[in-house]
Amino acid sequence: MTVASEPKRHLYLHAVIEAIKEEMRRDERVFVMGEDVESPLFWGPTGTFKEEFGGSRVRNTPMSEAAFVGAGIGAAMTGMRPLVEMTVASFLYVAFDQVVSMGAKSRFMFGGQASVPMVIRATSMYGRGLAAQHSDRPYPAFMGIPGLKIVAPTTSADVFGLMKSAIRDDDLVLFMEDVNLHGTRGEIPEGDHLVPIGRAAVRRPGTDVTAVGVSGGILAALAAAETLAGEGVSVEVIDPRTLAPLDTRTIIDSVARTGRLVVVDPAHRVCSVASEIAAVVAEEAFDSLRGPIVRVTTAQLPVPFSPSLEKGFYPTAEKVAEAIRRVAGGMAPP
Amino acid sequence: MRTGPAALPTPERQLEMYRRMLRIRRFEETVAELMSGGQMVGSAHLAIGQEGAIVGACLALRDDDYMVGTHRSHGHPLGKGADPRPLMAELLGKATGVNQGLGGSMHLADFGVGSLGETSIVGSGLPIACGGALSAQLRGSDQVALAFFGDGAANEGTFHESLNLAAAWRLPVIFYCENNGYAITTSATLACSVADIAVRAQGYGIPGEVVDGQDALACWAAVDRAAARGRAGLGPSLVEAKTYRFREHSEGRKLVYRTDEEIAVWLQRDPIDLLRAHLLGAGVAAADLERIGGEVDEEIEASLEFAKASPYPDPDLPARVVFATPVGGGDA
Asked: Around Cβ A302, how many Cβ atoms within 10 Å?
């Protein structure tokens, strides 16, 4: 008789790396390129790819974001399945035209003659004293680009399963990670665990208020929900997981039950994911709403360097709890 | 830097070269009429005057080699061997267009002949060509990729990044500059730091060569050498074809930035006339060239009829094409 052991809780960062390795073993067309991908500099001690897969499938690039993103697109249109590593998400701006004009639009403009089966992996590196340029959470800028799929997984199981789905997908997927999630742990189902692109998840069921937590914003949303539970407010926490195309149905269904919505997004306030979700709910679920929608985002200011200023600059559990109390204010006491 | 043709295409290929150059000329003349007659929307950047530079390069490639292009987009796929009918239908936005009517004049593509697409953002095609070449290298294929670009694109960051990347990785890319002297109205003599863009190859440790872009055979020879180099694993090359557009930057404009004298000098060096003179000098019968001309005329006329008779796309086409793997459950 065996003693039931604690299920293994995998580090988020290890989960995504393991998913990439499994897909590289599974499909010879998958290769990885980017700045310093041959070194475990950014990926931690498990980020050793070159030893297993060799130099042609794991290649350090010159610091030429436009060239290597474009080269990935060209390779993807001609039979390969590249994973392009951007490391810091802000570096996407250097390759913006290639992502937008070529990556997102080639399949469409060329009438479906080719696809761009490619993943661009980028991590939002905020909250680390890296100041305004390095700390961006740039996914909203890309959500406005039709033709891109954008995922932002928040758990070890999802980062594993969504990376596998992204690599197998026949379209360009912008794979957004959040450095504040890299150190979190979670269980991963056994086997070839796949998470479908385009489906949100209910992280915590609740009845009084819907709180959507985008990317690392899920941490503040879940913590606030825990706090509010102690105050007798039941918060349903939803993780969109995919930002484009957004699973609006799951969010609308939740708001139909709760009548109240708070959206937590670490991106800057204007035209954030929170803005989009608020607009969709206002348009499609207005009759369900029992109060104003509240966005908890980052102020429309560049990220300051000083630790005293950066601390509390992004959505915190306290700010989210305050927002939930505000929208729940009209509730009858239980 | 300047080298004459070391070799010639076979006589049959020379006739094919003539045919494709004429095909581009007639196609473009037809487009000019469509634009002036208000029968076509958008813009049209015609390749008239640059046919030798285009077809010379394309015929030095194999059918399975890759090619990317520019906003002056009609000549490249025609040069690579595309059927003119779906191209003409594309210009009219028809469902039978090569891109189903989703791309239009500046974005023709025909993956069936290795044309990975023309692009209207100047310089954006060069990294894509690097990708085609990288793909070939990874697959162990000896295909090469040719990137057409203009003198304007030679000042974009993607030009420099792509040359460096291709050189560092020995990618089989032929960077092929159609230097027609002007980025819309801005003279290359003012915008470029060097008189010959080809000298920039030196900065990346790769061969750079200037050729007479009106001489299709010289262009062929330069690309033939560059392709052989790429297939041998020796990496990329830069070829600069000095050429001239005989018409405006795009149809419907009338801008003053080129002198009549300058235009007149270039008009005397029509690439089709030059190839025709060569072929006649090589013993080809004038009647054979006339016959090719007649066939091309009929072919382009048939293309226009095909395009005009074709239906417009279904309204749901954009939503159907945007993703290869549609995602359910949410708003696109």
From this structure: 12
